[in-house]
Design brief:
Mean pLDDT: 78
Number of strands: 0
Distance between the termini: 67 Å
Largest sheet: none
Radius of gyration: 20 Å
Strand content: under 5%
Number of helices: 4
Order of helices and strands: HHHH
Structural class: mainly alpha
Length: 104
Amino acid sequence: MDAVTKLGRSEKDAEPTRESTSLRSRTLLVAFCLVAAFVYRSSVSLITSGLAEDAFILGFAGVLLAFALFARRGQSLKRYWEIPFSFFVFVIAGFFRADQGLRR
């Protein structure tokens, strides 16, 4: 085979395959995102500042990281693992921002 034929075949092989994500997996992901947003917001509003809030925020960040890693390893949510990971980054950033006394 010449180089042009090989190139033509590699382009065909490189076509993205469309993976289907089940409705259950997408519903779980949407529910998780909504719950994560509400839990974080309510935690900074309801828990008094101090050690309890810090422990809760760090524990919540751990749960988010665990879910991101779980989603990355699973087949049905592999394409969406960045979403819970971004929530993890957001929570950690909020934690360090709060430690600097910038939270209202």
